Amino acid sequence: MKRYFFHIRERSELELDVEGVEFPDDAAARCGAISAAKEMVVEAVIGEATIDGRQLEVMSADGDLVAVVSLQSVIKI
Asked: How far apart are CA 40 and CA 54, in angstroms?
């Protein structure tokens, strides 16, 4: 299992994930980020917050950028 970090970017600000989560590979980490983004959208809707410009940046423990998942991309209309 490899450790991945889901940093949250909101426009020019970056909130670092210092704990990380373990996944077997990059594809599983990307799926995990999509699930996390969906949860963030639900929380934003309940809290009347905006999601515009917010995204998860998935980084491996080695510092490689694995995926970028915008919150808007997980909404199916």
From this structure: 10
Query: How far lies 53's CA from each of 1, 10, 62, 70, 72, in Å?
Result: 31, 6, 26, 7, 8
Length of the chain: 77
Q: In sequence order, what are the residues at sequence separation of 6 or more whose Cβ sits closer than 8 angstroms to the Cβ of residue 51?
A: 40, 41, 44, 71, 72
Contact 23, 4 (CB under 8 A): yes
CA atoms within 13 A on the CB side of 30: 10
Q: What is the pLDDT along the chain (77 residues), one digit of tens a residue?
A: 999 999 999 988 999 999 999 999 999 999 999 999 999 999 888 887 877 889 999 999 999 999 999 999 999 87
pTM of the predicted structure, to 2 decimals: 0.90
